[in-house]
Every structure is written in structure tokens, then in C-alpha cells.
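Exercise 3.2. Students should predict the tertiary structure of the chain below and write it as C-alpha cells, then compare their answer with the key that follows.

Predict this chain's 3D structure.
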Amino acid sequence: MTAQGFALFDTAIGRCGIAWGGRGIVGVQLPEAREPATRARLLERFPEASEALPPRDVQRAQAGIVALLRGEARDLSKIALDMDRVPPFHRRVYETARRIPPGATLAYGEIAKRLGAPGSARAVGQALGRNPFAILVPCHRVLAAGGKVGGFTATGGVATKLRLLTLEGAQASARPRASKAGSDSGFDFDPVAAVEHVRASDPTLARVIDAVGPLGMELQKTSSVFVALAEAIVYQQLSGKAAATIFARVCALFPRALAGLRPEPLLRASDAKLRRAGLSRAKLLALRDLARRTQSGEIPTLAALRRMEDAAIVERLTQVRGIGRWTAEMFLMFRLGRPDVLPAEDYGIRKGFATVYEKRELPARKQLEQHGERWKPYRSVASWYLWRALELGKK
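Answer key:
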């Protein structure tokens, strides 16, 4: 495969590269840590090529890659590739992989079966490991046995593969299961893989990760959704010590408080009794609304919430008086352990972002969300490091 020219272009995952020859595209380069490294890698692969304006068919390929990495379902299987020097078996593997649509996945063994060589899963993996046409030959859609993500040779490794799958909306079963570290932490994702992903996707935030060290997020266990949300309401706009005192007093009002605060006794209690515990009128009304909605079944159980999507949970919880989006997002992160939450209205997150990226003003929600696209599907992890960045800035 002889390249005539190459060009760099911007995508949602960073600045990619593409090289072409007289018979089609000869290579695609996923982003390295910095643009000069991406250019150097392309020149290493195609030393005879010179940087140039791509011809029209290559521009169309670029546009297709950009759209796909933006989350659009694009079929790139018809783009002309120059496979003249690709070994015959590799070519067959690539042609099979190109037929996997966005959002779908196949196992190495399944591709081997489709090639009529059911015992060649390892050879399929080796061929995809040498794939010169990243994205156009979607090797990221090919998984190991049992739905495990498997290897990936691009910068960022498995984290980059996971990110590509997430951008395409691949099924959650394609994501890696939590490692022992993830299980011990209580989260349903692997903290080590999550930090690796965020580090690879954002070199600036990577410096904060290096300064802070391992992820220290902790899952806060609770006996029920009602108890967790009642505690969140009491803690709003108070210091931790004062809120803990008031919440303890509220629980102590009821003989069976040790078994967990429940909605029925709270609804039977008088306003005067609750106010004596230190509740403001606004918090009293919020707790009563929460209790009524819990009693009527409007508030799902913990088991039911774990089966719901993040957006649906936020919509359901924010119907309760006194519970806004921020409270619902904190519940997602620290009660349910959801990996992809970005509390874009949180002052600490915004201030931490301004500190890390040297902004004079706090970012608007839209700006923070746009930047946060690169952290998916681990925006909770990035958020935690932004909070820590604010602490580092104070020190």
C-alpha cells in the first residue's frame, strides 16, 4: 500500500489522520496524545506520503468518520480501501468486519465461523490487531468470548475501544465487567479502566489524575430510596455537622428509627414535632411530599431504580418537592454508582474546570457538557477529579 498523501482532521475523539493512494484509502490513524505525535505516527507508517489537501472521495470518507464519531449511524462499508498488500486472510477478516453495523458487535470466534474457519479466532484477533484502516474497518466492534471487550492497539487501549463502542450506542453487554477492584468499591464499573479512559481522552485532566492519584469515590449505602432522599433533603444548604445532627433528631423521633426512617410514621407526625427536630418549614414540606410519593408508589425501589436509565431516574426524582437535578445527580453517582454523570451546574465542578483549564470565568453548562463528551462513558470519574482539582487549587 503506497500512500500519496495524508491529512489530519478533527473528530469527537480528537485529531485523527488519514492517508490515501491512487486506489483508495491506505490507512486511518486514531489520535495519539498530541497532534505532533499523530502526524509523526502517520509519517512512520507512510514515509513516502506528504501532507496535502485530500481529494473529494477522501473528504467524503473524513466526513463519514466525523459523523460516526459524533454518534450518527453511518455506513462506511462502501468507502474504497486499497488492500493490495494486505494478506488474503486479513482481507477476508476486514471485509467481514466491515459488515458489522454501528451499535452491533461480533465475537472473534463468530467472524472465524463466517470465514469458514471456526478454529481461527486467534488468527482473526491477530489480523484485527494489525488493522491499518481503523474505524473504516471497525475492529472495535469485535469482542472476545463472553462479551469481554478484548484488546485494542490504538492509543488508550481498551478504554479507547470502549469509548468508540459507547459513541456508537453498542449494547451494555459489550462493556467490560467490573474487576475485583470495582466489585470491592461497590460500583458496577472497573475504576482502574475508568481512570485509564479519562486519562487517555484528556491530557490536561490527566495531569490532575497524576497529581491526585487513584480514584477515591465511595459508594454510600442506604436501606431505602426514601431514607437516602430524606437525608439529602435535610443536608441541603447546611454544614455536614449541623445536617447530621438534625437528621439524627428526626430519626430519633420515631420508636423504630433504628430500622430505618419510613414514610408512614413521618406522615403521622405533627408539624410541631418535626420542627422541634430542627427542620425548616421548606424541608418539612419536602419530606412530607417525599413520604406521600413513596407511599403511593411514585418513587421506585432501589431494585427498580437500578434497572432504569439515568435520565428517567432524574425525571422521576425531581418531581419531589425540594429535590432538584443536582440532588438527583448526586443520588445517581453516590447511591447507585452510575459511571456517566456530569453535574454541570455544580459550583465545585465548574470551579474545578476553570482551575484545570485556566479559564478566567466559570464555564456555562453547555460548554462543560460539550467538553465532557470526551470523558464518556465515565463522566462521574472525571467529575470526581474536577472536585479534587479544586481542592488542589486551594492548597
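Discussion points: Confidence is low (pLDDT under 50) at residues 171-184. Strands lie at 5-11, 14-21, 24-29, 50-51, 106-107, 142-143.
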